[in-house]
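Quick check before the chapter quiz. The format below is the same one you will see on the exam, so make sure you can read both the input and the output lines.
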Amino acid sequence: MSDQVRQIAQRVKELREISDLTVAQVASKVELSPEEYEAYESGRVDMSISLLIKLSELYGVDTTTLLTGQAPRLSVCALTRRNMGTPVKRAKHYVYKNLAYNFNHRKIEPLLVTVEPGTNADMEPNSHEGHEFDYVLEGALRLKVGDQDMILNAGDSAYYDSIHPHAMQAVGDKTCVFLAMVIP
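Here is the expected output.
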């Protein structure tokens, strides 16, 4: 695993220990087996964005704190210029950039997501608490939510309860870029 994955895992472990919680207690709260959770906390397995959101809620810290070790400082306005944002490598099929990483106490996680053609061919799903809003900026996106399977083109959007398994893939030979608003 990468150094970044190990650093995030170490921060999560320290928060658990400071909170005087056991691996089993945290695993139960984030709906994982103790063995699965321990694999994340040890840095052997990379954490998904949905797990990071659950852990940030559990510990009362911002996801930016888990990702970078630094708390966001802005509370009035956070400007993110084009092609900027903090890269978040949390899923093997998607590349995320957090567009409000430096804003404290966010109510949503605004993410710019890039999906390359050919990735997630098996439509491997994920799920997490809350809702999600996806707005396609470039290319075309196949989105499967539960039993619904749809194609979104530039300008199309979908809002859904993200507890239902969902998966995305770029359609055709163009990269798909979309704005994902994850609402815990």
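If your answer matched, good. The mean pLDDT is 90.
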